[in-house]
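FW: tagging you since you asked about this chain on Friday. Here's the raw sequence from the shared folder, copied in full. Didn't touch anything.
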Amino acid sequence: ARDLHVGDDDGEEEEEEGSEDMMTEERQRKTRREDTDEMAQLSLLVPNLELATGCSPAHLPGGPPSVLAQTLTQRVLTLLHTSNMIGMGPLRIWSPPPVDSSSATTGVTRMGGDMEEMDVREEEEEEEEEEEEIAKAEIRAFWVLYIDVLFISLDGNAFDAAWLAILAALKDTVLPRAWWDADREMVLCSDDPVEARGLDVRDVPVPLSFGVFDRDGLGVGELGKEQGKGKEKWVLVDMDGFEEGLCREEGTTVVGEGGRVVRIEKSGGTGVGMAEMRGLVDLAAKRREEWMSLLEVH
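HL: got it, structure written out here
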């Protein structure tokens, strides 16, 4: 009975740890959703995909934004928000509270009492002061990230290529330390590169665009149509421009950390069922591992 009682205690401890982990994950998800809502409300992410650079015969320079460019821009913006990949912390610009010199600790105060007790008191006082400073601080401005993507050469699969370029850019983006100057009533930035910090990139979602080629009797003659051989279909990934023109059904699967499905887009037909979609999600997870190694993200 004693052994059974110990086992019950261990089970209760495991349940408590599991519930704490679940609560922590739920708080993290809630924080990410709140950051994304605030980011979308303030329009802090502004992507722009430019195709009118002569990247293909269909996109000559000097022309207005094409329908494809506007569609890609909206898809990128939607994925930036739905993936919750960027945190709000580095984008906030605070007004620092005034420094109170009277609260500084001097060596004289350490002479009376026990040294260890004084160290503990000083640490507690410093923590209290930091909490008070955070409470007094106020958000006065935000960084806005303008993400411009220019296509030099386009031969299909524009969304995946643009997103990979955006991930590489966000990984290397560094923001200088900025603060609100109350006297000048403006934002000032430090020119010291040591004080600069990168973005809070929480996840690296990776897309996999695909298309379904339906032969529909092409190249088999009338006999093939009669025998039903023309109903064969192939799922193609990383398509070029010629293959995209032949595929009526297209879609994109986006996979994040741990194989989490971030987003699925599909239009144009019913050639891809549940089994094929699972295979595409697994393939997107493998591609994510390759991209992580290319971006040197661990």
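FW: Confidence is low (pLDDT under 50) at residues 1-7, 97-113, 219-228.
HL: agreed, and The first strand starts at residue 45 and ends at 50.
FW: great, closing this out.
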